[in-house]
Description:
Chain A is of the alpha/beta class. Chain A has 15 helices and 15 strands. In chain A, helix 5 crosses helix 6, helix 8 runs parallel beside helix 10 and helix 9 packs across helix 11. Chain B is built from three helices and four strands. Chain B has a four-stranded antiparallel beta sheet, with helices on both faces. Chains A and B meet through helix 1, helix 3 and helix 9 of A and strand 2, strand 3, helix 2, strand 4 and helix 3 of B.
Amino acid sequence: MININEVLETNKMILEENLDVRTITMGISLLDCAEKTVSATCDKIYAKITRLAKDLVKTGDEIGREFGVPIVNKRVSITPAAIVGAACCRTTKDFVRIAKTLDRAAKKLGVNFIGGYSAIVSKGMTPADELLIRSIPEAMAATERVCSSVNVGSTKTGIDMDAVRLMGEIVKATAERTKAKDSLGCAKLVVLCNAPDDNPFMAGAFHGVSEGDAIINVGVSGPGVVNHVLRTIRGADFETLCETIKRTAFKITRVGQLVAQEASKRLNVPFGIIDLSLAPTPAVGDSVADILKEIGLEHPGAPGTTAALALLNDQVKKGGVMASSYVGGLSGAFIPVSEDQGMIDAVNAGALTIEKLEAMTCVCSVGLDMIAIPGDTSAESISGIIADEAAIGMVNQKTTAVRVIPVAGKKVGDSVEFGGLLGHAPIMPVNKFSCAAFIHRAGRIPAPIHSFKN
Amino acid sequence: MNKAIITVVGKDTVGILAKTCVYLAKQQINILDISQTVVQEYFNMMMIVDLAKCSKHFEDVSADLAKLGLGMGLKISCQKSEIFEKMHRV
């Protein structure tokens, strides 16, 4: 039988250490919504999403109240829109109509984000893929809740450098189109390599074609819990450190597993995966950077940061895998800058640079995330940053991503406020030397030698 | 069996247990186990209860208990027991 200390420990995690379930994301296939006209396609999309997810928010809130654990976000991910719209969209405006339909559905449901305004172009772009990509700036400006992602490479296919070049321009154009809101559109746009089909986290969530008709994926969180427990073992050896993180990750993930199973049962939608993630928020005490500090760094970015993050990421996975029957998504520690007060402090202190963050992405779960850069950064330099991250993902057989915000009109020394979970960020300097000649080569980078495992 | 955990946290005072138990009895909620401890001068009590015979909706019981707690300057919460069992048992 459960004892009082266990009950108190759980409730302390929730009340004082920011333990929550970060998101219940319902993945919905829209493959059966493709029609000959844009209007008919949009009608079917709206009808299917609002039918399948009509009780998502209510059920998530009910589960949260019954178990006493906050379920922060309820979200929807869909089949990459480039596939759904391929049969009917002839112009970028046609795709924007789909984006607006998704936004309308999200508002009707009360979900704060809907992901999947996406194209998977790791080896090449179809005309529809390219149209969708070119529609992203307008789509991000015309909608509030739609998230967009483009997968430009994979270990199996190599990197589509034509898409990488195009995405540099698109990120710039999105920043420009949403400059009245500090280029907020770029906070809803991510460029990935090895994007998973079942990621519940935004902005990179989409419902891959390998998935069933509908699925429930859950993203857990809890950096504050890990940080708190590490405070109780200061100075301990690595074995103790790793065991403690692992045990804590197990406990956090079990809550996610419980919530996922309940949501699946009550919504009558199969359970997909748990994403074992330490996802920070700008709230005090909910920071991955603070964990790195507790492990022994003055600030993230100091020598030793990559090793500390590697250790953390690995222990989170080891503890989490045991706690859940299916794991997937991004799984690991997230290191966004604007969404983590400790990372923001490290940048302001001069400890953390984009180059060091890039090194950290070799061992964390995703990539360069929520980084504000000067508005005059060239499209080629942004493509160069995307190519570097994609190369890390491709060679290391892991997901990597770039979500940078070239804030229109802002320069190093300025800062930007996105609000809510997206947080605020100082503008970080980008290496000013040119990579234009490299980026303007046409074609793709071949798959690495270790991808040939057949 | 429909198990839940009720926790009561706050400054110790006369009648906490009595008032809580009166409410539970009225709702046909059976108490399976009670334990309590004092942490940093704060009274912490935990009850394991069975709501199988309770006709009220879980969320209403939870809201009633929270209200009862407020009246005594305490925080009373009622959570389904699975969250604790899942977290602390393999």
